[in-house]
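Assess this today:

___
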Amino acid sequence: MLEARIRKRLEDLEQNGLSRKLVPPTGIDFSSNDYLQFASHPKLKARMSAAIMEEGCGSTGSRLLRGERSCFSAIERRFAAFKCTEAALYFGSGYAANLAVLSTFLEDGDVVFFDRLNHASLIDGMKMGKARKVIFPHNDLTAFRHYLDSIATTGQRFLVVESLFSMDGDIAPLKEYAALCREAGVALIIDEAHAVGIYGEHGTGLIEAAGIADDVFLSVNPAGKALGSAGAFVAGPAWAIDYLVQRGRTFIFSTAQPPAVAAALDAALDLVEEAPEIRHQLQVLAKSLRGMLADQGLNVTRTGSQIIPVLLGANARAVEVARALQSAGFDVRAIRPPAVPEGTARLRISVNTGLDEITLRNFSQCLETILHEVEVQ
């Protein structure tokens, strides 16, 4: 009975254009989150290789058992200084970090205000938390202000948002959120997954760029994207970080990352601090591709982040266009529900510093041709 039930579920996914396949990277990268190309940077590889020879391949246990290493504490102190916070705690993934933060701090009697397009890890963490959930339309300040004024509680109120949204590539109105939270005593939690390492004068993220560091309770900073490695840092006040060590289940019950990852992260922070031109190059490339796509009549703003969505609507259409681009040598993936709302299947184009103007031009022309051919069919 179980096999029959699951096979029916798989057939339904296939018929609705929602079946996924595991496909390794091929062609020119227009889909990964390796925005600064740090994952293959010689400095990160050399530092991590040397650390493996010294520390070994695995941590052997959770950090509260035998998995703790001085390199973890050192990189946490450095990251806290990088984000201008009192402390930081390193998790095995951004997903684990978000689950820990929201399941630990959102207690019975609290209220959490939540952008409806927040990442799945934030959604799952919110569900695990015991607070009342109030979901408002994406980046809608008016709706948030309305709920803030109309929903009272004797407990704590929280606002949870991404700084840069992973599927739409747009930026939250962080300054306005911070002002409202400061006035109302709301604890602001920001996921900087796609912003840390890129934005701000020192590359620490959009919290820095918005100048709201003093108004943020906690930030979650995954390291497997622009920082080119793995894991995630939660940064904030020392008392909150200590509480996560005591109560964060995904921290307590997870085997620690290989210690050598800390060496790669240290090298990545060196590059962010020492080579701001890399971050500037990314912004230039992203603006250039946005302009090219806008000139073709696509609904793409000319300014914005390194994440550029091209909405195609139907699941099958998104899959067809992505496959055609892959056949032409460009690694672009179709994004479909549940990663995005129903009816908004898309290409999620991500720009990285390994690209150049000629490649961007070739890609945009290829996309234009493919979209025309699909329309004709």
Remarks:
- The chain is about 45% helix and 15% strand.
